[in-house]
Structure formats: C-alpha cells, structure tokens
C-alpha cells in the first residue's frame, strides 16, 4: 500500500488556507458533490475535528472555496484594442473555469456570493465601457457574457443537432459567440 505524505510534509501547518486548497483539489478532481469535510480531513492526514476548528461545516467550506475561486479569476490587460482586451478577458475566464469544473455550477446555483468576484466585475465592466457602452449597458453586457459563459460550460449535451454541429462546451463555439456578441456591443460589423 503506497504511503501518503503526512499533512506537515505535504501542506504545512493546518489552517483555513490549507483546508481550502485541499477542498479545491477534491472538487476539481471529483466535483463539488463529492466534497465532504471527512474527505478533506483524510486528504490532509488529520481528523475531521481538526477541520472543524477552522470551518463550521460543509456550507462554510463551500463558501470559502467559492471565495477562493473568485479571488483567482484572471484579470487580462491587453492594450491592442478594447475589443481584443474584452475577448481575451472572457477567454481567460473560460479557461479558468474549465480548470475548475465545479465553479460554473456553483456560480449558476447562486447559493454563495463571493465578495472577491467584485474585482473581476469592475474590471470586465470597465473593459465593456471602453467598447463604448454606457454604465448601464456595460452592466447588462457583463451579465449577458456571464450567461453565455455559464450556459456554454454547463451544457455538455450535443443539443440533438447531429454530427454536423459542434458539441456544446466546444471552446471554438464559445469564442465564435463571444466575438459576435462583442462586435454587437461595439456596434461593429460581425466577423465570421
């Protein structure tokens, strides 16, 4: 039987940051539905009671995990053009959530509001304003782009359209829709 490194060897002293990192590993690998305090404790080589010293239960752990996810959203600064900057930003968010597949369902469920997400919201909305949108329209466009992104990541069904149509979740399909939306927001002709 292979030996598991001790908690100290693998993670250092037990604290909330270490617990959230272990939870992220489990959620990334097995999904949020498989995340339990017991599994986190086992992965850290400690008992569940030790985990409870840092988080009150699974709900608090998931909230901390969502906060950690939001804090890690990439902020892309691309000086070539406002459209390119916005395009690269949303592609980066897509890649990031693809690396953390539990993230899109957690965001869509809306059970947890991560304060750290405000950083991304302000950044991405400012990018949309640079496209020429007013504050209200930039906020609307931001929500539309989230709906596109989450719908794309959550819908793995082939949509019943047969082999000639890309499967939902295909990144090129997302990028095509993203480009067309950004062109519409900027009032520029669509590129195919």
TrEMBL record:
One of its GO terms (molecular function) is DNA-binding transcription factor activity. It holds the Pfam family TetR_N. SUPFAM superfamilies: Homeodomain-like, Tetracyclin repressor-like, C-terminal domain. InterPro entries: Homeodomain-like_sf, HTH-type_TetR-like_transc_reg, HTH_TetR, Tet_transcr_reg_TetR-rel_C_sf. Residues 36-55 bind DNA. It comes from the Bacteria. Keywords: DNA-binding, Transcription, Transcription regulation. Residues 13-73 form the HTH tetR-type domain. This is HTH tetR-type domain-containing protein. It comes from Actinocatenispora rupis. The lineage of its organism: Bacteria, Bacillati, Actinomycetota, Actinomycetes, Micromonosporales.
